[in-house]
Amino acid sequence: MVATLVLVALVFDFMNGFHDAANSIATVVSTGVLKPQQAVVFAAAFNVIAYFIFHLKVAQTVGKGTIDPEIVDHYVVFGALVGAIGWNVITWYYGIPSSSSHALIGGLVGAALAKSGWSSLNIDGLLKTIAFIFISPLLGFILGSLFMLGVSWLYFRTAPSKVDRRFRRLQLLSAGLYSLGHGGNDAQKTIGIIWMLLIATGYASATADAPPAWVIGACYLSMGLGTLFGGWRIVRTMGQKITKLKPVG
């Protein structure tokens, strides 16, 4: 049963990469900086490279800081994962950008509530997570607007062709950094789920500072593979339906 649930978790991780690949490659594909096939390989590589850079802070929050590890069993983990996978499939089918991370946290909280009620939740950790669900898009909107205004002012008298060449290179940097952050953040959520399961079933120590190395490697690799296959429905939504992405000028 544990092996089956680990496999389901890795399927979710694959779906996370597949579903959320659009976030990092929509800009470089829509503006023609990279061809679609090049973009997904580029993003997948940075997803996996994150394995060598990021500490496991997010995994620790998911594994120990969201719900009480004492109430975790096969049913809680299964309910959380299947709920998140189901939501990802629905939003992918309709081409709706949606956070796989939020789906997973929601599934985990819902499964814990169904089993043990409100006492099963780690309120401090959960409130921190919920706060950033709202802070992140607002902060992104503000910084994106300010950055666009600043760039427009700095390059006001520069020929559009020169600006285009320069920012095509910078788009590769921004897409690479986003993919790096995606791997470093989202892969760790699945690491946290598997770690929680292994602790609950006695396959890992609750006092350990990190999960087994094979869990970390498998999660980063699964996300990278998912990104490699890419969710083009969502790329089209982000690049053409929400905003008409094209080079400025």
From TrEMBL:
InterPro entries: Phos_transporter (IPR001204). Keywords: Membrane, Transmembrane, Transmembrane helix, Transport. The chain crosses the membrane at residues 40-59, 71-94, 130-156, 190-208, 214-235. Its main location: membrane. It is a multi-pass membrane protein. The keyword NADP does not apply. GO terms for biological process: phosphate ion transmembrane transport. This is Anion permease. The lineage of its organism: Bacteria, Pseudomonadati, Pseudomonadota, Betaproteobacteria, Burkholderiales.
